[in-house]
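fyi for ur records
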Amino acid sequence: MEDIAMIGFIVAGLIIGALARLIKPGKQNLGIIATLLLGLAGSVIGGTIANLVGTGDIFELNVLGFIIAVVVAVLLIGVAEGLSGRAKAKQ
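which gave:
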């Protein structure tokens, strides 16, 4: 049963990454793999925050955790774009 929960968690993270990319305005210089990995990171952070607030387990999909995960993923994508833009500017 834990395997199914983990697969669901990964799929939700990938969806969150794609959704965050759609929400973030402007042209993004990140690849799809980087975006999806940032979505997974946002999913972990969102699930952890929702767990700390007491709305459910980290692997449990709930509204608050999903919203926080999307917001965090959008922020992570913005930070990653900023970092990649600086690296290109130095070259």
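DSSP finds three helices and no strands in the chain. thats all i got for now
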